[in-house]
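Please, structure for the following, as tokens.
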Amino acid sequence: MDRLRAGEDAIHVAREVRGDVGLWLTNHIKRDDRHYVPYVKKTLDRGFVSRMLGKFFG
């Protein structure tokens, strides 16, 4: 908010925040949610979920 109030371009700030949140979320999933992988693999559809698990956990 301080950056917006100071006149910084809202689109630039929003893109930076989106990138930061995306990076945080990816790292959080890889690190903190890793123990859920076996359960998720067994119980959810293999299409989209399988692709995302592969993307996050190799």
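The chain has a mean pLDDT of 86. The CA atoms of residues 15 and 21 lie 10 Å apart.
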